[in-house]
Amino acid sequence: MSPVAGNSEAAILSRTIRPEEGDLSADAAKSLLNLSIPDADQRRAQELSAKATHDGLSRPEEVELDNYRSKGRLLELMKSKARLSLQKSQAA
Predict the structure, then answer these.
(1) Rounded to whole angstroms, how far apart are CA atoms 12 and 14?
(2) C-alpha to C-alpha distances, 7 to 10, 44, 48, 64, nearest whole angstrom
(3) The domain containing residue 38 runs over which residues?
(4) How many domains does the chain have?
(5) What pTM did the predictor assign?
(6) pLDDT in tens, 8-25
(7) Contact, 17 vs 77, CB < 8 A?
(8) pLDDT digit string, tens, across residues 31-53
(9) What is the chain written as a DSSP string?
């Protein structure tokens, strides 16, 4: 693993959250699964993505889109851990 890939935002978040470890309580897991990015924010991220493909983005728009992407990754890691935690608690 290269140092850059190993220390990317996604890699650091994954090591921090440890989505492969289902060690949350059932209540905590259910609460995390109820989190979602608001519709207006999802639409804005889709607009920026489409614009990036067709016209290109200004620097502020690139930063904004990167913010949406990184928060989406964070949410997905948390939800992955929550789903695994619920599976483990139901199997116990």
Answers:
(1) 5
(2) 8, 28, 26, 22
(3) 3-91
(4) 1
(5) 0.84
(6) 888 999 999 999 999 999
(7) yes
(8) 999 999 999 999 999 999 999 99
(9) --HHHHTSHHHHHHHHH-TT---S-HHHHHHHHT----HHHHHHHHHHHHHHHHT---HHHHHHHHHHHHHHHHHHHHHHHHHHHHHHHHH-
